[in-house]
Please model this.
Amino acid sequence: MAHGSGSNCPSVWHKNYPVAQGNRQSPIDIVPHQALHDPSLGPVVLNYDQCTSMNITNNGHSVVVQFDDSDDRSVIQGGPLDNPYRLKQFHFHWGEKGCHGSEHTVAGNSYASELHLVHWNAVKYKTFGEAATAPDGLAVLGIFLETGDDHRWLHVITDALYMVKFKVSTTVNCFNPKCLLPSSLHYWTYLGSLTTPPLHESVIWIVLREPIIVSEKQLGKFRMLLFTGEEEDQRIRMENNFRPPQPLKGRKVRSSI
Ligand SMILES: NS(=O)(=O)c1ccc(S(=O)(=O)c2ccccc2)s1
Ligand SMILES: [Zn+2]
Model:
């Protein structure tokens, strides 16, 4: 859970963001045998083949790789989505040690980290900002990270993290996030929200069942990032930037499995 001073403490977010206690908040605990298998749910299709990555930024609460979303070169479609959603950015959530750090949990079990690929509905909405407040505006693909062997492609990101130790940005060229996908695209899907303020209830969540494997060493590089800027004398390590599971409030989780 994100501890620490003021705003990055989930238990007080509702004071400034009353929607934190809304009816479709994220993350949630996914209970596989209570999920509804929906045969009408087709496969999720990721068209990330062209190079649209732009930069990697430490934004003070995570590390974010941003993409050029001025056209439909990088989109997700299929599955629960009625049309293609454009890739805007991806970022991670992690803990300070062991297997805590993911936001979604599976039957009460958490993973060491969770990758979120954020997409927006550019067919129905003119801008990301407009989509971000619409009930079907965003689609976030969640991928669990489990510790084990080195992930050969995650190195491209983790080797760049020292450059964004403080709250800064640097360019990253031609990183195709398809290399961060597990072999199976079986997923759970449900209607939820952003997991950080402003907590908009605008996200169609697609959470992959199969985790990707990364090494402790690679995860450790996330933990050496700082919430603070270079000019600040206080150095607060960036870790535990995950929100705990929120009440399901009657929502149904569907599975493609
Ligand atoms: N963890 S999460 O994937 O739910 C998430 C939190 C914040 C974002 S955002 O930066 O895209 C964003 C989107 C809308 C408004 C402000 C920021 S995505
Ligand atoms: Zn996230």
